[in-house]
Amino acid sequence: MNFPAELKYTKDHEWVRVEGDEAIIGITDFAQRELGDIVFVDINTIGEEVAANEVFGTVEAVKTVSDLFMPVTATVLEVNEGIDASPELVNTDPYGEGWIIRVKLSNPADVDTLLSADGYQAEINA
């Protein structure tokens, strides 16, 4: 499994890539493997501020639907249009083309409370 060191992680299996006062959020390689073939991603929070640990959408795999949790308080700016047409990108490239949302961070320092790659690997016993 892949755990890019430049990202931050949550215990709920989301990753965060900070870009100034914005961030890109997706699910980890571990999460997509656990879910299996992803067939649909539903995000209905565009334009809304979502508090840390609150649900910002769902990801649907062949046999399950899983909530997506906001890693830090942020406003949802954009959903990755590429995953509308090709939700399998979340499986094949979870840290690249399979990103899920772009957000504006309410407090960029909150990202410092998230797990490092090493911390996340320890959390999932990888």
From TrEMBL:
Cofactor note: Binds 1 lipoyl cofactor covalently.
Organism: Sphingobacterium micropteri
Family according to the record: Belongs to the GcvH family.
PROSITE patterns assigned to the protein according to its UniProt record, in alphabetical order: BIOTINYL_LIPOYL
Function: The glycine cleavage system catalyzes the degradation of glycine. The H protein shuttles the methylamine group of glycine from the P protein to the T protein.
Names of the cofactor(s): (R)-lipoate
Keywords of the record: Lipoyl
PANTHER family with a match to the protein in the record: GLYCINE CLEAVAGE SYSTEM H PROTEIN (PTHR11715), GLYCINE CLEAVAGE SYSTEM H PROTEIN-RELATED (PTHR11715:SF3)
Encoding gene, per UniProt annotation: gcvH
Modified residues (N6-lipoyllysine): K63
Name used for this protein in its record: Glycine cleavage system H protein
